[in-house]
Amino acid sequence: SLMSVPPEQGQFMSLLLKLMNASKTIEIGVFTGYSLLTTALALPENGK
Known about the structure:
Blueprint: H1 7-19, H2 34-42
């Protein structure tokens, strides 16, 4: 589907979140949930 995030973009987003030491994120609008899963896996254990 055209609305899903490509794997390369998901990896880049994960890298940015880790470099920023992000502990909280917000996802607005979910199609397949791939970007949400990528974001959740990049957060530390105490992340929200």
